[in-house]
């Protein structure tokens, strides 16, 4: 869940810059020329290990994505954004279909959420695959192929005649589509010098907004389409249409990954290291797994972030149970209750920006004036605040979700949940981006994504049974008690993070570490 862009992606935009652009009201103007000089556009290209492989494109080479016209770069960026939005929307849009799937295929409530779980499981390794193999073949083959295959399996899911077919199709839709999440940030970085081009920053703002809003708005979209058509299969039909439209939008996007372009147009230039399939597998799979097992920072922060996202997925099951069973809401009106979470998420972004501008940025300016650097642990302050608010939101939902209390009370708890969720989930990858830098940031992002979606795939499976056996108030309270344990975890990393970083095998500048 990124705000400006996936913070774990190397070269991510500083949050303070993104916040400043938003507060200044800068708008996208496709007729504005790039603000970079020719000298600034000359870059050095790096391979997967961060080593120089080429001097880069000449500044005036039209084949360099940085040299494309502003209008062209904006259009290609928006096309990729449509694809990313369609894919992120694809999981939770199924949520309103659960009760209809139970009736259609005669499965229990627990099994009925399996398509959510399997779609999420597809995201465990997909981003790592996309990131790793773009080093060999470029971004666009995987980007377009992922869209096409995700669309095909979404069509299969929408026309499934058995529950088994539905589940298999959902898994492959997620597995084949998920590489887009790992590639999309790279596509933006290919076309924009994000720290110095305001339009590039605005593209990442849109990227971050989608990451935040899509999971919350998807149940509303799904409920509305079912209400309008009377057919739950249209949640998949709509998703397939969006993926197909996205494919057409990106069909004519050329390759943007510079190492591939340089190898194609300047084959005589020496490369410090040629990427092999073995390298791609080693970096794409081996390193993230080893970082989880061997690094003292990555494992606890991945589990923390995974827990918060998994609780969000619990809401996909718990909200329909609460509002349809207790308050007798329709599928559509149940979808509307997720607007509270979305409003909270927008307020959470605002809170993150205010803390960055009023707390982090002054510390950074003061430290730089003294020739020092702000410790990365300062990035965790918003997460500490969010971790305190998080259990309050869960207890609020747990003990107001009953027929004797107006439905507005549990709905409003979703606003506080959204406010707490954003700083909790975003501060961790922001922190790790500064800890691991460009050398290992992508691997840390892959590990973080795998853990988040693995836990997100698991939690919905036991949510219905937990609510049935413990009752709604105690089931949600159990999650609240668990989230209380996250507070000292945040504080521990904040206090002892510097010591943990000193013993890390993956400090920036370290080479030849798998």
Automatic annotation (TrEMBL):
Domain of life: Eukaryota
Region (Disordered): 1-61
NADP as UniProt keyword: no
Chief location bin: membrane
GO MF: spermidine transmembrane transporter activity; spermine transmembrane transporter activity
Keyword Methyltransferase: no
InterPro entries cross-referenced by the UniProt entry: MFS, MFS_dom, MFS_trans_sf
Signal peptide positions on this chain: none
Compositional bias segments (type: Basic and acidic residues): 38-49
Membrane topology: Multi-pass membrane protein
Xref: PROSITE patterns: MFS (PS50850)
Gene3D superfamilies registered for this protein in UniProt: MFS general substrate transporter like domains
Record's subcellular location: Membrane
Keywords per UniProt: Membrane, Transmembrane, Transmembrane helix
Domain Major facilitator superfamily (MFS) profile as annotated: residue spans: 76-501
GO cellular component term of the entry, any: plasma membrane
Membrane spanning residue stretches: 74-96, 116-134, 141-162, 168-192, 204-226, 232-252, 297-316, 336-355, 380-399, 405-428, 440-462, 474-494
Pfam families, A to Z: MFS_1 (PF07690)
PANTHER family: MAJOR FACILITATOR SUPERFAMILY, POLYAMINE TRANSPORTER, PUTATIVE-RELATED
Protein known as: Major facilitator superfamily (MFS) profile domain-containing protein
Organism lineage: Eukaryota, Fungi, Dikarya, Ascomycota, Pezizomycotina
